[in-house]
């Protein structure tokens, strides 16, 4: 451990998965760490809070998928038990139930991606349409999460990708685009093909159990972040809410020496940014020192997506077959999910009525509506999926509007995203939108990039041990062979043909 006056000072900006992960590791290594959070509490968009009436609400429900190896390792280290058991899920359209997913790890394991295709129970989608996905496996093999692969596929839209590989229009409409609407939060024509392949592979196609999911038995803020922050503070770090960063102080050697929050200045030997794209753009807009760097100015080319989170209390118990459900086809460019909180959250297990969380992604058209306009729409959509909701009376509700809340992986956005290392030698980036080669997505990627940024600080300042980051599970043997053959052919082709298109 580093002693008192010799402690190196690190400032971390943003108290979500990335910022908490970086702060926790650096505090354990003896650094003097200050974590600055613009909001009123740690956790950012995944935290959750209580209403004045004492009811728990949050900015959408967040699942924890089977390949979240690093987050599950953290949970074990913290000695907490925040999760449900593995749950089954369904998919609905205005026509009714479309898909049921089993718990894949309970079934005989088949070579990827056969288990995903054979064990998923499609109610209406004909076999011929499902088989039309087979040519797409070439793109899955070709996309290996390398920089070259991202540059090959990032300018292509997801819709173009599926069309180019002759995926049937029905399979795209009824299966792949719904995955995009709740996975990348936008319709296919607005999603990068590279991000699409990365997301689909990580969550669904790489290994049979990858789509299995558990949920927090309450808000993530209460079940995970509160005990985690207590552990972080015991390790010596300061966690300061309501601190909005406005600028950096840079010395003559182009090193950052301080982080400015209005009238406060926090001295720093290293800085980690761990905020989303929208938050980072706000910081850049007030910071002349960040605006002086092209990489930060270019963040204005990146965007984010609107989310609407609703929580509804009904006057009676309604039988909901599965606790987590995704829905498509209700609005042309919006996906939504609904969750049975009586089944998932301890707080509502003995509730006399039904408590539902319904979250809408790419919810642009909803945010300008009043609560009184939104709630009947949500109940009508729920009743389309489960008719018993028609007779139920809504007795309480929460509506949370989240403009520009989640990362938009738009076509062509990769070239503007930041690496963990920046042109400031002691400023490092983390978050689910940062370029890295780990291969994870969403909350797991945010946490992993926080650990990666902490490791860069350890390397830069030369004190402490790096965090051990668990890699994603290795490709199955047949995928490794296919990727090796594909790369051999690609290398041979490049050796005999000129490079007509530069990446």
TrEMBL record:
Domain Amine oxidase per the UniProt entry, residue ranges: 18-457
Organism classification: Bacteria, Bacillati, Cyanobacteriota, Cyanophyceae, Nostocales
InterPro entries for this protein: Amino_oxidase, FAD/NAD-bd_sf, Zeta_carotene_desat/Oxidored
Designated name of the protein: FAD-dependent oxidoreductase
Pfam families in alphabetical order: Amino_oxidase
Source species: Nostoc paludosum FACHB-159
Gene3D superfamilies xrefs: FAD/NAD(P)-binding domain
Domain of life: Bacteria
SUPFAM superfamilies, per the entry: FAD/NAD(P)-binding domain
């Amino acid at each position: 451990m580093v002693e008192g006056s010799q402690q190196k000072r690190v400032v971390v900006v943003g108290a979500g998965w990335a910022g908490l992960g970086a702060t926790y590791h650096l505090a354990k290594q003896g650094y003097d760490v200050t974590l600055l959070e613009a909001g009123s509490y740690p956790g950012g968009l995944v935290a959750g809070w209580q209403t004045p009436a004492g009811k728990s609400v949050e900015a959408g429900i967040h699942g924890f998928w089977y390949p979240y190896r690093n987050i599950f390792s953290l949970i074990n280290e913290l000695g907490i038990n925040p999760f449900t058991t593995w749950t089954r899920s369904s998919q609905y359209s205005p026509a009714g139930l479309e898909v049921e997913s089993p718990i894949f790890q309970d079934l005989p394991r088949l070579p990827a991606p056969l288990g995903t295709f054979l064990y998923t129970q499609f109610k209406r989608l004909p076999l011929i349409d499902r088989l039309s996905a087979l040519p797409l496996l070439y793109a899955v093999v070709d996309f290996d999460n390398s920089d070259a692969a991202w540059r090959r596929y990032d300018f292509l839209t997801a819709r173009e990708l599926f069309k180019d590989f002759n995926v049937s229009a029905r399979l795209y409409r009824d299966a792949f685009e719904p995955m995009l609407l709740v996975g990348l939060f936008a319709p296919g024509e607005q999603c990068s093909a590279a991000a699409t392949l990365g997301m689909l592979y990580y969550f669904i196609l790489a290994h049979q159990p990858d789509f299995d999911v558990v949920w927090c038995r309450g808000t993530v803020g209460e079940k995970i972040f509160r005990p985690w922050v207590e552990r972080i503070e015991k390790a010596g770090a300061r966690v300061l809410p309501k601190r909005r960063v406005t600028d950096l102080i840079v010395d003559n050697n182009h090193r950052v020496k301080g982080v400015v929050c209005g009238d406060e200045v926090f001295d720093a030997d290293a800085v980690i940014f761990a905020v989303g794209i929208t938050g980072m753009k706000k910081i850049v807009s007030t910071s002349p020192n960040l605006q002086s760097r092209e990489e930060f100015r270019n963040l204005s080319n990146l965007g984010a997506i609107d989310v609407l989170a609703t929580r509804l209390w009904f006057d009676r118990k309604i039988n909901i077959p599965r606790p987590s459900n995704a829905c498509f086809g209700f609005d042309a460019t919006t996906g939504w999910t609904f969750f049975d909180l009586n089944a998932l959250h301890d707080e509502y297990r003995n509730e006399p009525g039904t408590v539902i969380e319904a979250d809408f992604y790419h919810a642009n058209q909803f945010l300008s509506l009043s609560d009184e306009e939104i709630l009947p729409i949500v109940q009508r959509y729920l009743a389309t999926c489960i008719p018993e909701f028609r007779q139920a009376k809504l007795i309480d509700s929460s509506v949370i509007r989240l403009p520009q809340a989640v990362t938009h992986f738009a076509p062509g956005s990769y070239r503007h995203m930041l690496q963990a290392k920046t042109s400031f030698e002691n400023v490092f980036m983390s978050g689910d939108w940062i370029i890295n080669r780990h291969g994870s997505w969403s909350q797991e990627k945010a946490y992993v990039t926080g650990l990666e940024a902490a490791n860069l600080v350890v390397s830069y300042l030369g004190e402490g041990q790096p965090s051990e980051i668990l890699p994603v599970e290795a490709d199955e043997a047949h995928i490794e062979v296919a990727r090796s053959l594909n790369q051999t052919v690609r290398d041979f082709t490049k050796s005999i043909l000129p490079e007509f298109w530069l990446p």
